[in-house]
Amino acid sequence: MDINIIIPTYKPGNYLYECLQAIDKQDIDLSLFKVTIVLNGSREPYYGQIKKWLSCFKFTSELLYSDIASVSHARNIALDKSESLYISFLDDDDIISNNYLSSLVSGIQPNSIVVSNTYNFFNDLNLTKKDYLTFNEKFSSDNLVKYRKYLSNSCCKLIPRSLIGDTRFILDLKRSEDAVFMFSLSNKIEKIISTDNNAIYYRRLRLNSASRMKYRLFIEIRDALNIMTNFSKIYFGNINKYSFLLYLTRLLAVIKRVLLTFR
Q1: How far is CA 245 from CA 45, 117, 144, in A?
Q2: Are 32 and 59 within 8 A, CB to CB?
Q3: What is the pLDDT of residue 262?
Q4: Residue-wise pLDDT tens digits, 183-229
Q5: For 85-140, what is each residue's pLDDT tens digit?
Q6: Residues 216/250, Cβ–Cβ less than 8 Å
């Protein structure tokens, strides 16, 4: 087994150390995966601090740097360098359960992605909340439309490198870049398979995070048009291989988000 955990980070705080601690506690053989951290934006004092943190852990790691402050660009850099058979994206402020990787590996099937359970927390892992991706029972399905919410982000899952190929995150998208990336892969995905519900990806909620920011209506509309344009380019670029129904649900999700700004 050969897994590359890709972590983009920008001006990281102590939460990155907590993220790395969780990786170091994985119950899978540490030789079966490597961690690639891509620091983007300001270099110091962050680069030196990350190097110091990494020296405390047993897993194999690689620290890359880009002066371009972009999570998508950072992920693309790691993908360009990676030769691993499987990719697992992890946000720098999130935490994974000790059985996270071993559970993902146990669900591997050809041309399929394996997803973990997901819960939210602020600062205390003992006080978690359900996420929209939380599930109670294990599942396996080739119905991508029914389980489309698991294609809305790139984290919380194990993705075969063969499915990714030359696909990369689109740099001019500041939001929904994950959803567009996963939609790009959907023409190759045969199944979405879950782990047991006790393998958990804990998403840290931060009030100042980009995903929780409020935007003016004209910015929402501008971004929505850009997102839908990119979905459309993918779909109409290979119309015979992508699901029209899945494409339609992606557009409706974007429209729904814009309408919620009127509330």
Answers
A1: 47, 25, 10
A2: no
A3: 67
A4: 999 999 999 999 999 999 999 997 665 555 566 777 888 999 999 99
A5: 999 999 999 999 999 999 999 999 999 999 999 999 998 999 999 999 999 999 99
A6: no
Residues of the chain by 3-state class (helix, strand, coil), percent to 5: 40, 20, 40
Fold entry, domain 3-213: Spore Coat Polysaccharide Biosynthesis Protein SpsA; Chain A (3.90.550)
* 140 and 193 Cβ atoms separated by less than 8 Å: yes
Residue 259 has pLDDT above 80, yes or no: yes
Closest CA to 103 of 26, 23, 182: 26
CA 253 to chain centre: 18
- The closest alpha carbon to 202, from 122, 108, 139, 104, belongs to 122
One-character DSSP codes across 202-213:
EEEP-TTSGGG-
Cα atoms in the 13 Å half-sphere on the side-chain side of 116:
29
Q: Tell how far CA 64 is from the center of its chain.
A: 18
What would the pLDDT profile of 132-172 be if each residue is shown by its tens digit? 999 999 999 999 999 999 999 999 999 999 999 999 999 99
Q: What is the C-alpha radius of gyration for the chain, rounded to an integer number of angstroms?
A: 18
Given the structure tokens 């590996």, which residue do they identify? 105
- Give me the DSSP letters along 75-140: HHHHHHH---SEEEE--TT-EE-TTHHHHHHHT--TTEEEE-EEEEESS-TTSEEE-TT--SS--E
Q: Are 230 and 169 a contacting pair, CB within 8 Å?
A: no
Cβ atoms within 10 Å, residue 154? 23
Q: The tokens 């020296």 sit on which residue? A: 55
Give, rounded to a whole angstrom, the gap between the first and last alpha carbons of the chain.
48
